[in-house]
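call fold(seq) -> tokens
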Amino acid sequence: MLNFELYNPTNLVFGKGQIEKLPTLVPKGSKILVAYGGGSIFKNGIYDQVIQNLKGFEVVEFGGIEPNPHFETLMKAVTIIKEQNINFILAVGGGSVIDGVKFISGAVQYEGDPIEILQKRILFKDLSKVIPFGTVLTLPATGSEMNSGAVVTIAATQEKLTLGGSALFPVFSICDPTVIASLPKRQLQNGVVDAYMHVMEQYLTYPHEGYLQDRIAEGILQTLIEIGPKVVENPTDYALASNFMWSCTMALNGLIQKGVPSDWATHMIGHELTALYGIDHARTLAVVAPNLYKVMFETKKGKLAQYGKRIFHLEGTEEEIATEAINKTVAFFHTMGMDTRLSEYTNEYSATSDFIVNRFEERGWKGLGENQKVTLDKVKSIVEMSY
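ret:
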């Protein structure tokens, strides 16, 4: 097992009715920016619950944070915080809102052009240099409610870039599984597949000695396979909803990546497809991942075979099991309502591979993945196989 440090200060407040604890979780005397997205919180009653529980606090609202939050939008919130001396942020929404708030938190006191936070992948480690924030989760998927990473889109250049650092953990996150009852099927499908692929990026590398980490990861995968199709059809079932929400959090709260290698090449390619074509993040992962596994088959064969045996109970030679494991993964994506070809989302894909390779080259990215063997020529092959 590799050396590691595990640090996660987020107070996760999980279960029915936990939003009532909000006034005890926000620091007394805070002036709060309540940040949210396109307005679904008004339809499902979450907005009213938040405002009701923030009586006695001075509250400023900031709405309109997009899916795949835009740098340009978030900078408007940064201006408001500076002008109004706001000292706490509450993100009410899913991963996009929470990611956006992480950027806002770091950008307020950033010395320099805030766009550098994304272009230079700045890591925030000093708590005195960020605005503290909490979250009320409304859409399980990204694990952003219990990690310190974020992804933000620069609309002007069609780039989807990352930021993070130990100072960007939420102070607290309220996670009430009952909120998923009002979510559209598409968002629930996306959430299941997003969480599944978060696990796969940390699990499907090569055989190693992180035995416990593998078993935890496999447990999350098995749970998502079991409950995924059911929770989409029955989101009011509390057992399904709670296991779904907790699986999404556990998939990316930092635990399963400790002491083991991780990949993330599928995400790097998928981010470009979202930035270029506006395809839902989870759906880009379902497009890219199977083809990445095929192109990188020889380096991933051992772990693919372990995955096939333990998750799908496959039998045969290592090569046969590894190959069928990819097919089973595609079948699961289809069960979850995912298309797995880029051409099913856009007709303008013919130059996509060259565009992505050129962009990675401009950033100096010569090799991605757990061993940097996903070279630019392999990126090109992966994208073209995804057409």
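Residues 211-233 form the longest helix (23 residues).
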